[in-house]
Amino acid sequence: MAKQTFTTGQVLTAAQMTSLQQTAMLGGDASVKVASYTLVAADAGTTVAMNSASTTTITVNTGLFSAGDTVFIQNRGAGVCTVTAGTATVACAGSLALPQNDAGILYFTSASAATFYDFIQVGAASPLTTKGDLYGFSTSDARIPIGTNGHVLTADSTESLGLKWAAAAGGSSFSGARLTKSVGQTLTNNTDTMITWDVETFDVGGYHDNVTNNTRITIPAGKAGYYQVSAILSYAAGGTGQRIIQLAKNGATFSYNLIVENGLGGGGYQTVTFADIVYGAVGDYFEIAGLHSQGINLNIIGNNGDPGASFFAMSFIGA
Amino acid sequence: MELWEKIIEEYPEIKATDNFRDLGIWLRDDADGVGAYIKKWEYSKPIPDGLTLGKPE
Question: Which B positions 16-55 lie with beta carbon below 8 A of chain A?
């Protein structure tokens, strides 16, 4: 029953009392709308129900209602129905947008101001619909749909919800190079000699060139960081002096390892190994240098494919 | 004649199998076609005539 104005001595019928009771308990007849609607004075004390598959509005204007008047608003349709301030103001702590089967009470505090008490307050209604959905927010609650397998959640201020699923940057993708020699290399006695590498077992990331500056492993763009270094120099047989393997960074000796030949015998390869972790900035280059004091020139074994052949390898560990 | 041989020729007290670094003589070859050069010289005697410190231009 719509809001009534009673007069002194008026007698209410049982039907009127029942209707008033239903209205007071937010029940009773509802005025069902199927398109956007603007409230009128006669809606005071009644239920206005929207039933539309499309988005609709219920507009609230000033000068039609008195302080204390209420309108119970329902949305029965699939389309979102939004309570909209026309010439009146409408305050709300929740949401003025009513999804299907939501409802609320519009309570007037004056002829020009109302408060809408949304039954489903912020946080009460989940926007999640699908396995793996995340609860997000922009200006209202929203779902962040599950992403592609293997992707990671990434902050992105250009996204409407500030987040997106994206492929992991870097991660487990290998980057590095392993180099060998197709032929041996003569090392002059007592002379630090940079070792050339003309065969790539692999070069993932563009660290090396088989021809130009082929002594070098150079840190490519985007790959500054820490590297595991390993190398072997296999010296030809010899029975005198030292055998040294050195790592040079940008042309300067960085660290080295050596063996003292005396006592090791001279019947086979003398293999010197090297292992370290180094930091490389973009453009830094690393080289392996050999040094010996055999007393005469001595070869480094370089036949590619020989298990005892020399090699030089660097692999990216992380930034 | 190799660079190290020229040094021994000038200073016969140095043996071919000595570790030149221990004597303060650092020879280097960058494998770039330039050949060996004296990287550092801290030996007790001067660089032999005809030899120079540093990589040739």
Answer: 16-21, 25-32, 36, 39
